[in-house]
Amino acid sequence: MSSKGGGTALNRHNYRLSSDTDKPRATGMTPSFSTINLYYHLNLSVCADQLVEGRLGPQPVVLDHTSGFEGLLFVDDDLLGVIGHSNFSSIRATTCVYKGKWAYEVLISSQGLMQIGWCTLNCRFNQEEGVGDTPDSYAYDGNRVRKWNVTTTNYGKSWAAGDIVSCLIDLDEGAITFCLNGQSLGTAFTNIKMGPGIAYFPAISLSFKESVAFNFGSRPLRYPFKEMEGYLPLQDPPTTDLMKAHKLLGYIKNVLSTVIDAQVGRLLEKDCAVWRLQGEPTVLITLAHIFNHFAPLMCKVYLVEDVLMNFLLGILEGGGSVDEHPLIQQLLDLFWLLMEDHEVNECLKQLMMSLLRAYRFSPIIPDLGFQIHYLRLTTAILRHEKSRKYLLSNFTFDVLRSVVFFYIKTPLRVKEAGLEELIPTTWWPTHFDKEGKDEREPKDESADERLRRRAYERGCQRLKKRIEVVEELQVQILRLLLNNKDKTTGEASRYIFLNKFRKFLQENASNRGHPTALCPPEYMVCFLHRLIMAVRACWDEDNRKSPSSISSEDAYVPPQLFYNGKVDYFDLQRLGGLLSHLKKTLRDDLASKANIIIDPAEIQATSMDDLDEDEESGAAQRPFGAAAMGGALARPSWLSSPTLGRANRFLSTAAVSLMTPRRPLIQPEKVKVRTLAVEQRTEDDIEGSHGSDGLLLGRPQEEPDQPITEKSLLEIVDGIVMMYNLSVHQQLGKMVVVSDDVHEYAVALKDTEEKIARCPARRPDILEELQKSQKVFAEKLNHLSRRLAWINATIYSKEKMLDVYWLLCVCIRTIEHADNTGSLFAFAPEFYLYVAMNAYSALKNYFSPANSMEELPGYEETLTHLAAILAKHFADLRIVGTDIKDSLMQALASYVCYPQSLRAVERIPEEQRVAMMRNLLAPYEQRPWAQTNWILVRLWRGCGFGYRYTRLPHLLKTKPEDANLPSLQKPCPSLLLQKHMAELLSMDKDMAASFLNSVLNQLNWAFSEFIGMIQEIQQAAERPERNFVDTRQLKVCATCFDLSVSLLRVLEMTVTLVPEIFLDWSRPSAELLLRRLAQVIHTCVGLCVCAAGLESVDHYPILVAVTGILVRILLDGDRQGQETASLALSKQKSTWQQQMRIKVQQSRPSQTNCFFVSQPTSEEDLCPICYAHSISAIFKPCSHKSCKACINQHLMNNKDCFFCKATITGVEDYSKPASS
């Protein structure tokens, strides 16, 4: 292998170490640096490894995947990492010990149920019993904090993800000890069974989805006990190679710090940091001889981690910026010059994996010194262009693993993280209102509280500054990966990173059902924020060079990325449905608006692919490797051993083949171009060349012809939006639980202190218990408040809030630009709308009270733009997905519950407001109407009769964590939107009739369902046998009650705003609507008062809504309207009495006259539908009969006959002939 560097080409194998007889000593070289003496110096310093007695089994030591396991397990490729995949799986190592002192380490990747320790060959495990449950096995369980040997007792401390458990066995004394992060937990077992035939294997039992990684000695133990206590790792360290590597590395450093003075013929010392590759040929030849021995050693993980990594870390120990230490760059130049490709590749791989392991699992100290140290070395290595490109291009440093470098883990143990020293004073809210909300105002604070709060805030600021140092280093790493100027050695780093990043998104988007293949969401959160900072920095740097482009503040993703096929969106749903369907139905629009032609053969091929989509995706999601069951090996998960295991790889079909040339001024010729797969794309495919627009092919006429930024950055921004949708938003919601816990414990502590103050002096026993509780709550709050400070600094800081806000603005602008393309809007991925809604929800609910959304720049304008999107697209016919339409409706319903966002809805253009109200007033049938009705109710709450309450008076007090729910917000009616509703219903008579008819129909259904369910529930409760009411039935019953109340409130709203709909009988449907309204009122009042089983139901919500309707039509209207309403209500009362009479006649015919004076001449003359009115109408052409009220009401919803289902063409008056 020959490599180039500094204009000199050398081949390491052209230089061999010569003996004294065939090569003279180099001129000017002292004997200590002579190549003749290299063998002598090496062999003089090393001795042969000595075999250690007391161990049986092969080297290296790994997990026994052939016969030493029970249950279902996933095992890593290196046979050191394992994930449980059944109830309680067990596995042991391949090597056992019977004499001496031995140790091994286990890295805890998840903190669940596991038992780690030792077992003999005679132990038999199953799905219920594992290590420690049999006589000759011993285990430590940090999840339950116990030790196990058939029986169990308390032992040790609880472990957490990232901890290292050391398992020590002393077969000279018969004792077993465990250590946690180097701290001894004490002797766990003594007098263990020993003697002939007894040997102990390392073993573990773990439950479903728990994962660990073993280190038997293949890498240096994190906490070696050899020097102090004489414990040896199960796998022998390469002692000879270690000594050789140390000496050779010392030789290399000596050579680099030496210069040849040709005039005096001697060597002079110099600073090795100023050495350059273009040096003396003698020095390069000497280094080539040294590397002839050094290079093979650097392919071994133990030597790389123990020798090379520590040597490179030592170079950076002096402090200063990474640029001040060029020696690392020079060493990497030598590696590429003097080592074979496969050697330097393996060396870099092991070096980066060792750095990643060290960074992820190093303990957290107050100044984050370990993390900073490892990140600095990572930055220094990635500054070397050739090394950076190799690491990016190969699986060694793909995005899935590099994400670990951008994660800052949250300490689970405050003491071990040093937060007590960093934040010595803690603080939490102490003033709460009746609902449990924090109502603290600065003027209400006592002097002591103010001092505590300010001291706590100062501590939080100190912590934040130290975390910012780590974050800045992480952003520097990403800036290196996003470098697009390093083209001297091939493709720029940014384009390699972009393809890897897209593959990473594909794996996480396609494997939501395979948690072992997904990047953990807590990693995604940190990665997203660092990537936003790096991308915005690159974007603004490009903007300074090209002032005509837009700044990152106005960033958006152009709509052509969604349909030109240059960006693969995998199987993610589009707003208009399946991509194959859109290509068929919108191909004419693509040709006319974007100059894109769809090949019919391609459409047919895509359709055939859709038929096999499920089968292909199922095959693609199978992990590489098999489960450790029946002797088969399992494919590893990077979660258990992220630095060694490979990420699952998935197959995906190619992106849509839709490309066009740059749009000229004249009508272009439409061409078809084949799209390359993601991993095959080059810089020209992304940025464009030779008259091609790259990613921006197919610019629609509505899109401005203005440069935005480098096209590669646009695709990364698109990926950031996708990443937020995949898991970041869910993780932001999960971390809020710490703040909720602080609030809950603070309320409990305040309540306990008040009880102590009220406790009588004669009850010291109660006082003692209360004081114990007070101490427990205070200790818990001290711990949680410090942990909350860490979370606020890493996840909910002001800077992180600005990142999410920027993402929200990007989505809003992208949706607006895509909306301008007309029908092509259907190609936009659904996740842009989801991210817009979720990002707003996160800003409003997750980042407060530490940060206020009102302080964000352009906050009100952004709310208005988002309101316009929700108002327009919740009923957009271009959107076909049921889930996204429901989400838009729910988001709009939540939006109108808060005063600020409701004012934003009122600020959108009047045309959009009227269109929104028109869509809300569409008939309820055949569409989700509950959320629509809720929106109308929120616009009315605060104006109705007795409708100014936040929650119903009879309900329990709101929990603090529920105080931010939309349904529990204070009333904030919108008079402007009410005005639009009144104008629409008043002017459009047909719409008013259909809307009210649908409301009345749904009210009849909801109230009837509620009555029936509540009676069933109470009957079941009154039975003598013990019955448990189904929780789901209770929820459905409560939902029907809420729907009934909200529908009544909408009727009250309509009666108040547009009374003429019911009272102006010149309108064709007024009489029928008033009669139906009266019918509903009588039904609600009658059933509430008379129906059995409703005694325990609070009648207030129903009756107060009915009262509001009656007040409006009987008292607040004009005289004519009052008389009309009174007449309708009196007639309805008579009708209701007749209906009751018919029911009573059918049940007790002999007593009918006791209740009612008059009765019809014949039952045959009554309407067969309602049995309340005489027959007065006949249908054409079928000649069936009913009363006019029934047929008119029926024809508002259906044109088919009640009886024969024939289409009714007309209705004529009917009167009974006199002869009959």
TrEMBL record:
GO annotation, biological process: protein ubiquitination; proteolysis involved in protein catabolic process
Domain RING-type: 1167-1205
Domain B30.2/SPRY: 41-221
SUPFAM superfamilies tied to this protein: Concanavalin A-like lectins/glucanases, RING/U-box
GO molecular function: ubiquitin protein ligase activity; zinc ion binding
Reaction catalyzed: S-ubiquitinyl-[E2 ubiquitin-conjugating enzyme]-L-cysteine + [acceptor protein]-L-lysine = [E2 ubiquitin-conjugating enzyme]-L-cysteine + N(6)-ubiquitinyl-[acceptor protein]-L-lysine
Biased composition (Basic and acidic residues): 680-690
Places the protein is found: Cytoplasm
InterPro entries xrefs: B30.2/SPRY, B30.2/SPRY_sf, ConA-like_dom_sf, RNF123/RKP/RSPRY1, SPRY_dom, SPRY_RNF123, TPR_RNF123/RKP, Znf_RING
Region (Disordered): 1-26, 679-705
Pathway the protein contributes to: Protein modification; protein ubiquitination
Keywords: Cytoplasm, Metal-binding, Methylation, Phosphoprotein, Transferase, Ubl conjugation, Ubl conjugation pathway, Zinc, Zinc-finger
Record CDD domains: RING-HC_RNF123, SPRY_RNF123
GO cellular component entries: cytoplasm
Alphabetical list of Pfam families matching this protein: SPRY (PF00622), TPR_RNF123 (PF25576), zf-C3HC4_3 (PF13920)
SMART domains: RING, SPRY
First-level EC class: transferase
Coiled-coil stretches noted in the UniProt entry, renumbered to this chain: none
EC number: 2.3.2.27
Principal location: cytoplasm
Subunit organization: Component of the KPC complex composed of RNF123/KPC1 and UBAC1/KPC2. Interacts with UBAC1 and CDKN1B via its N-terminal domain. Interacts with RIGI (via N-terminus) and IFIH1 (via N-terminus).
The protein, known as: E3 ubiquitin-protein ligase RNF123
Species of provenance: Monopterus albus (Swamp eel)
